[in-house]
């Protein structure tokens, strides 16, 4: 599902207009981005946790040349699904 599909589904599920749902999703996105940019985590009970993780410097390999290269430290966004979401996904898989 892409953003348009999500907007359509939310609009049908809630009876909110697509315009209102779009504004809501954009606001949610901004809040998550702002929270992670500050280095804080966002916990959504039953769904999961968004947080940031710091990766230290490391040595990598250039796949084209097989040459070792130094990769700099970086900060990445992570998502850890909650227990309820994990159970729902596992139940849906054969």
**CATH class descriptor name:** Few Secondary Structures
Share of β-strand residues = 25-35%
Mean of the pLDDT scores?
94
Question: Ends: how far apart?
Answer: 21 Å
CATH fold annotation: HU Protein, Chain A
The number of distinct helices, counting runs of at least 4 residues, comes to 3
Instruction: Please estimate the helix content.
Output: 40-55%
Structure write-up:
The protein has a single domain (3-92), classed as IHF-like DNA-binding proteins (HU Protein, Chain A). The chain has helices at 3-14, 18-37, 83-92; strands spanning 42-44, 48-55, 58-61, 68-71, 74-81. By secondary structure, it is an alpha+beta fold. The strands form two sheets. It has a three-stranded antiparallel beta sheet. It contains three helices and five strands, in the order H-H-E-E-E-E-E-H.
């Amino acid at each position: 599902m892409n953003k348009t599909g999500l907007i359509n589904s939310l609009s049908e599920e809630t009876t909110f207009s697509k315009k209102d749902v779009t504004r809501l999703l954009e606001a949610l996105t901004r809040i998550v981005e702002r929270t992670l940019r500050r280095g804080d985590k966002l916990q959504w009970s039953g769904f999961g946790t968004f947080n940031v993780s710091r990766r230290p410097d490391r040595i990598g390999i250039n796949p084209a040349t097989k040459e070792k290269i130094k990769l700099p430290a970086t900060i990445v966004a992570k998502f850890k699904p909650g227990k309820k979401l994990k159970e729902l996904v596992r139940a849906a898989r054969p």
